[in-house]
Design a protein that fits this description.
The structure holds 2 protein chains of 2 kinds. By secondary structure, chain A is an alpha/beta fold. Chain A is built from 10 helices and 13 strands. In chain A, helix 4 links the parallel strand 10 and strand 11. Classes of the chains: A alpha/beta, B mainly alpha. Chain A: This is Succinylglutamate desuccinylase/aspartoacylase family protein.
């Protein structure tokens, strides 16, 4: 055997070892951990129950149903539309594990783009996991991607054409479920998942829909609620209540010429009132420093403090950052106040619930040392 | 269908790179080819 053959086999062996190690890591990202249904969960089903085209695929995702003892309206909470916006899915999970619905029915999808949770955005140095201590041990949650996994949907076109409107966007938005609504049954996997959610809204006659997001501190639409025009009265009343509680929240009208998003398309193509909320997440920002789990959980970043001093940001930013408790608390308090406003204005179909951790529970009353995961963990099982 | 064609192309490329590993005389070029096949095989198996 020649020398080059020996070194060739050695090279292949090294490649095999690297492939096994990295391959196991990539496959492990498909495990999103366990959600512990709280006392209010009355039924669980898969999203494919509303559109069987996604059955057995990585787009299918769990739907938690919480039915109250009294009849009422119906509400949908979408977490995990973007996997790199952790307060979205952590708020949905905190709702599932704590809330008890008294009247009406609440549907919660913690991982709206399930595929997007199974990988990370390339070249972003995002953490793969975030860990939150609870009374029952440390729970591990995935930090995912803004887009569906390219293993599930490939290739991206140069230009993404939104099917319902003809709007043209960057090709990378092809795998963004919040540019895919109202979806298509014969479209891409991401469009099919969006279609399944629209089918859920239509078939269950969902009255009020929340889509929970985060945004970069330098993004103008932040600490904001975006509402379809038919939800403006509900949103306006909710925003006033939030501001009275000291929570800075602006109200943005859904642009009529920006298509594919929940707050536009679910409003146009279904009877639901869609509201989208944004909080400040430094770990997805362009001006961030070191990108790691601590940044995702605490938001503490000297680069953002400096950016604030230079006037680059749309949210206040100091050395205390924006911890996950503040961001989850904003979302949950928003759900509480908007639902109250909805129930007051649509008194024939109210939705009421108890047990949801408030902004005060999670953030205002917490010890500073417990911010960044510990305080949130007290509300997770 | 397009995914199957894509994976077929990847398989052909992997075959020629492995062949190249055993044909190259210089260890640095063999190592270079080794680096190339790692992501290709992960892609072929639809792991990444």
């Amino acid at each position: 055997m020649q020398r080059k053959h020996i070194t060739g086999f050695i090279c292949l062996a090294v490649a095999l070892v690297v492939m096994v190690i990295t391959g196991r890591n990539f496959l492990s990202l498909k495990d999103l951990g366990t959600i512990v249904p709280g006392p209010g969960v009355t039924e669980q089903k898969m999203l494919s129950a509303y559109f069987d085209g996604i059955e057995g695929t990585n787009m299918d995702t769990e739907v938690y149903i919480m039915e109250g003892s009294s009849p009422g309206g119906k509400m949908l909470i979408l977490g995990g539309t973007h996997g790199n916006e952790p307060s979205g899915y952590l708020s949905a999970i905190a709702f599932i594990e704590n809330a008890t619905v008294e009247s009406g029915t609440v549907y919660v999808i913690p991982y709206t783009n399930h595929s997007g949770m199974t990988h990370n955005d390339p070249q972003e140095a995002s953490p793969q996991y975030i860990h939150i201590p609870t009374d029952n041990g440390v729970r591990t949650f995935r930090y995912g991607s803004r887009a569906s996994n390219p293993v599930d949907q490939w290739p991206d076109p140069d230009v993404y054409v939104h099917a319902a409107s003809g709007q043209q966007l960057s090709g990378s938005e092809t795998r963004n479920i919040n540019r895919a609504y109202p979806g298509r049954p014969d479209g891409t996997p991401t469009e099919q998942a969006a279609y399944a959610i629209a089918e859920l809204v239509r078939n269950e006659d969902v009255n009020l829909t929340f889509d929970l997001h985060e945004a970069s501190p330098e993004y103008p639409v932040i600490n904001a609620t975006v509402s379809h025009e038919k939800g403006m009265s509900v949103a306006a009343e909710g925003v006033m209540e939030l501001q009275l509680k000291g929570i800075a929240m602006s109200l943005e009208p859904s642009p009529t010429n920006l298509h594919g998003l929940t707050h536009r398309e679910l409003g146009d193509y279904t009877d639901t009132i869609p509201l989208l909320m944004e909080s400040a997440n430094a770990s997805q920002g362009r001006l961030r420093g070191a990108t790691n789990e601590a940044l995702a959980l605490t938001g503490i970043d000297k680069a953002y403090v400096k950016s604030e001093a230079l006037g680059f940001l749309y949210v206040p930013y100091d050395e205390k950052g924006h911890p996950i408790e503040e961001r989850v608390g904003r979302h949950l308090q928003g759900i509480i106040e908007y639902t109250k406003a909805y129930s007051a204005q649509y008194a024939d179909a109210p939705v009421t619930f108890i047990g949801v951790p408030t902004y005060d529970d999670l953030f205002l009353s917490a010890d500073e040392a417990d911010l960044g995961g510990v305080q949130l963990g007290r509300y997770l099982h | 269908m397009i995914t199957l064609i894509y994976r077929g192309i990847v398989a052909i490329v992997v075959f020629f790179i492995i062949k190249n590993i055993f044909q190259e005389e210089k260890l640095t070029l063999q190592a270079n080819a080794t680096l190339v096949i790692i992501p290709l095989i992960l892609r072929l198996l639809m792991i990444k």
